[in-house]
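@channel sequence for tomorrow's demo:
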Amino acid sequence: MVFMSWILHRKVLINILLAAFFAAFGIFVNGQTGPGGVGNFDGSNNQPRNVLWLDASSLSLTDGVSVETWSDISGNAYDASNTTTAEQPEFVQSSALINNKSLIRFYGLDAADNDHLDLPSELGTTQDGVVGNNYTFFVVAGRRAAGENWILGGNPGGPANGNLGIGWRSNNNFAQVHWGNDIDVGTGAQLTATGQLGIFTADFNVSKSPSARKVFENSQLQNTRNNNTALGQWNTPTLGMFAGGRWADVDIAEVIFFNEAVSDAQRIIIENYLGAKYG
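structure tokens (generated this afternoon):
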């Protein structure tokens, strides 16, 4: 389906990287519990810390019901939630677009709709979040309509490097936003059509300067930015909304957050895990 050709073309390279990674890091003996066997909830054993892991297929819900709580399965209990019934997204139990896996459907482009889920405020801190830190986000998501559609973001806007946003800035532009220091991917380079879902990776790693910030789509590098300034704040982190009530018509199947940058080998392992799962 959406990811299959990508998986086949990368199979040999991924197998080599997997073998090297397992040998170097001892993934089977160090208690990794993160996605694809990468990392764990507390960063022990010198593994990357998987702070947040939301997987729609882990929810025991009936198709079509409103989602009040999307439970975090990282082990940190950082659930996404919304207690206002009229603003809750919808649970889709099985989607043919992603190998009959589940997803969360957000409605936001009609005047009466403002579906969203609030992420824990701790994601906007130094200890557990993005502030002052390297980070890597993985999201399996797509937009159902053209135009501005944000997968996640903060509110309000903020000063430079004062707000994180990931999603479609416009009909022709997918972006990783730091509020003033942004990465944009033009529509000609995008691999995921409207109405489909893709794997998007947003990475910030000051040690990789002059390409400290990178955006990948279905494991392909889409753009970089020569800016190693970390986020100074991320207020009101939210799924399905960005900066001042910019709501979205998006489907989100999975959200994974590490509050440090994973290695290239670890990134490919996680992207391969997601591609095989949703392919």
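heads up for whoever presents: The longest strand covers residues 135-143.
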